[in-house]
Design brief:
The longest helix is centred in the C-terminal third of the chain and has 21 residues. This protein has a 4-stranded mixed beta sheet, with helices on one face. A hairpin with a 5-residue loop joins strand 3 and strand 4. It is of the alpha+beta class and about 220 residues long. The protein is globular and about 45 Å long. The chain has one domain. The protein contains 7 helices and 4 strands, in the order H-E-H-E-E-E-H-H-H-H-H. Bound molecules: zinc ion. The site of zinc ion has 7 residues, from helix 3 and helix 4.
């Protein structure tokens, strides 16, 4: 286990080469976890334009059921190593579908909301019960793009001023990815996927149904 403070803790979208030693220790690869978005470094508060130690209220989790109709539980995990919100979707040891929420109090509600929906989407699309594709493979990238797309549609349609909140979440994501050193091309393609999805003349339900049918899960 690393003890260095200034260590990129984890991120798997879209370049997952920095797998968190911390998280990998707790949840090893065999568990087929899907970990999202961003966890940043201990000095990242300033990079986010926040005063050091800024904390936010943690939002209530959204309604979430997986493709089998099972209710997904949300669990907030206290971690002293995480300084920005990140999530992980998987089944726990008892087989219950869960979204784990790390460091939520360190990120604004807009990003918390986006990550909740994104992680929920991995359950809704059946990703969790499918073999985990190799990191950074086209299939993995596609799963992440789909989860982002569903999150964008849900924020747009289910949240008051969802479009405004989504714009804020995208800004936070951008800052976070830049702070960790993603190439701007990578960040831009993620943002443009989210923005394209927001324009889609479809509901998240229809979009999810399309994915499940395509995968032979419906
Ligand atoms: Zn994801």
């Amino acid at each position: 286990m690393r003890t260095k403070n200034r260590k990129i803790v984890a991120l798997t979208w879209p370049d997952s080469s920095h797998v968190s030693s911390h998280i990998a220790v707790i949840w090893n690869d065999r568990m087929r976890f899907i970990l999202t978005t961003i966890i940043l470094i201990s000095f990242s508060h300033t990079a986010f334009g926040q005063s050091a130690g800024a904390e936010f209220d943690v939002i209530a989790p959204p309604v979430c059921a997986n493709n089998l109709g099972e209710t997904v539980q949300f669990e907030t995990v206290e971690s002293t190593r995480v300084t920005s919100a990140a999530g992980m979707a998987r089944r726990n040891e008892a087989g219950v579908p869960v979204v784990y929420r790390f460091g939520y109090k360190f990120s604004p509600p807009a990003l918390q909301q986006f990550i909740d929906f994104h992680e929920c989407a991995h359950h809704q699309t059946g990703d969790i019960d499918r073999p985990h594709p190799p990191r950074n493979s086209p299939e993995h990238m596609m799963n992440e793009s789909i989860a982002d797309c569903i999150a964008a549609l849900r924020m747009r349609d289910e949240i008051d001023d969802g479009k405004g909140l989504l714009a804020e979440a995208v800004l936070e994501l951008t800052k976070a990815m830049q702070a960790v050193g993603f190439p701007s091309l990578t960040t831009d393609s993620r943002v443009s996927n989210i923005e394209n999805c927001m324009q889609k003349d479809t509901s998240s339900e229809d979009f999810i149904n399309g994915v499940l049918i395509h995968r032979g899960l419906k």
